[in-house]
Design a protein that fits this description.
Distance between the termini: 56 Å
Shape: rod-shaped
Largest sheet: 5 strands, mixed
Structural class: alpha+beta
Strand order of the largest sheet: 10-12-13-15-14
Strand content: 15-25%
Number of domains: 2
Oligomer: single chain
Low-confidence stretches: none
Mean pLDDT: 84
Order of helices and strands: HHHEHEEEHEEEEHHEHHEEHEEHEE
Number of helices: 11
Length: 478
């Protein structure tokens, strides 16, 4: 939508700019044409005024040489007629024009004919003792040497109009639809009030389509770059946010495991205390029972090692994944066992016995801590889902296999399952259906899986429940 709006706005602005330039050029040429034609018709009035003022002294009825030389000086003047007091006009319309000129004291038009190819009209001026009339060629009146437009190729149509008659000075190209510019102005002569009319028809094909198409492409490219930058920025922000909340999620998981860890540590610590107290009493006997005391100390050491292993698993749960170790061979079954050991108190509390099915050893390229965190999160989610069904119906199945160069871990539960409309959103950050949940666990697991070249997906279990499938690249055979 943004691309379409910007393309339309840019195209309209380019077209309007081009039209404004064409209008300005049109009006400039039209004004120049009007000025040139006005100068010529004013020149005709000046010629008549000069003749009337000089009044050649040739005998009445005879031609004056000076009058007959005017066409050679002014090519648009075809002939000069003179009426002496003893002569008459050769045309019956000229006496009326002479009478009108005598009353107005100005030159008067007569016999205007714009229908011929070159156009003709006469200009009559009454004077004493002789009156004069000029036969003027309209086409010759146009100063072609100074004309501002190429006559045959210019799209501008220029005409002279008078009393319904039209003389085409320049044909132009006025066809089709589009934008029309028009200029109308009478010539600057009271005796020859011809109206100069200029028309310019801008067709659709004349619009700057090349520039408009280029603008559309530039806008599309700019929006594509901006969109890619926005996606990259959003992805970077999402990754940074997930990395930031990853530690928070691990700490939240640690809080959930605190009770189970306390239960696991309580047994070895109690055994250590009992064995060390027994060894002390045995050493205080007289004589001391050294053999029994040494056995008690060995038992205490074994329990201490067990407690250290429990703390090690707890530490691995909250460690930050190491990018340098993202491609190390890891035993997928061992990662599952470690997660199950860590969640043993949770399983006992819910009366759930995870069943692990392993066809053959599977080693994948992964970061050990990140992999154990994914497995732990998947098992935790399954246990929480099983809380919502009766204890007799709770089943947790874990399948480990390989397929087409990928290690596959499948975690299936018989909980209430995931609604079809919810399934596409389970990996979105902060999306959760569990009351009090953060909605970060599955999103973080998907990010970790993608970072190790794998994939995490969710689907429905049959006949009831949910299945999460983790795929990771297999490690090369050693």
């Amino acid at each position: 939508m943004v691309w379409l709006v910007l393309s339309v706005i840019g195209g309209v602005l380019l077209a309007r700019s081009e039209l404004a330039q064409w209008r300005e050029a049109f009006e400039t040429d039209a004004r120049i044409s009007h000025r040139l034609l006005s100068q010529r018709v004013v020149q005709h009035e000046a010629v008549l005024a000069t003749l009337a003022l000089l009044q050649p002294t040739s005998p009445p009825g005879s031609a004056d040489p000076a009058e007959q030389r005017l066409p050679s000086v002014y090519p648009q003047i075809l002939s000069v007629l003179r009426r002496d007091p003893v002569s008459t006009w050769p045309d019956t319309t000229l006496p009326q024009a002479e009478q009108a000129s005598r009353q107005s004291h100005t030159a008067v038009l007569a016999n205007v004919d714009f229908t011929s190819a070159r156009g003709r009209y006469q200009l009559v001026l009454a004077a004493q003792p002789a009156s004069y009339a000029l036969l003027i060629d309209v086409y010759g009146t146009v100063p072609w040497s100074d004309w501002p437009m190429p006559v045959q190729s210019s799209p501008v149509r220029v005409t002279l109009e008078h009393a319904g008659q039209v003389f085409v000075v320049q044909p132009g190209h006025i066809t089709g639809s589009g934008w029309r510019f028009e200029f109308r102005k009478p010539l600057a002569s009271a005796s020859q009030p011809f109206e100069v009319v200029a028309l310019r028809q801008v067709r659709w094909s004349e619009l700057p389509w090349g520039a408009m198409v280029l603008w559309v492409l530039v806008v599309a490219a700019a929006l594509a770059i901006w969109s890619a930058w926005q996606r990259q920025r959003s992805a970077r922000r999402r990754a940074e946010e997930l990395l930031r909340v990853g530690q928070v999620a691990r700490l939240n998981t640690l809080g959930e495991l605190a009770a189970g860890m306390a239960h696991e540590l309580n047994q070895p610590l109690t055994a250590i205390l009992a064995n060390t107290q027994a060894a002390r009493r045995l050493l205080q006997d007289d004589p001391p029972e050294l053999t029994t005391a040494l056995h008690a100390m060995d038992q205490a050491a074994a329990q201490a090692r067990r407690a250290a292993e429990v703390l090690g698993r707890l530490r691995r749960t909250v460690e930050q994944p190491s990018p340098a170790a993202s491609g190390q061979p890891v035993d997928l079954a061992q990662a599952v066992r470690n997660a199950i050991d860590l969640l043993e108190p949770e399983c006992k509390l819910r009366a759930v016995v995870p069943s692990v099915h392993l066809a053959h050893p599977v080693r994948v390229l992964a970061e050990r801590v990140a992999l154990e965190q994914i497995v732990h999160n998947l098992l935790t989610n399954a246990l929480q889902a099983l809380d919502l069904v009766p204890a007799s119906e709770r089943q947790l199945r874990i399948d480990i296999a390989s397929n087409q160069g990928m290690g596959v871990l499948r975690v299936a539960d018989t909980g209430p399952g995931i609604a079809p409309e919810t399934l596409p959103h389970v990996f979105q950050p902060f999306f959760t259906t569990r009351e009090g949940g953060l909605g970060l666990g599955l999103s973080l697991c998907e990010t970790l899986a993608s970072g190790m070249g794998g994939q995490l997906c969710a689907q429905a279990n049959e006949p009831r429940g949910a299945v999460f499938v983790l795929t990771l690249p297999l490690a090369p055979a050693s």
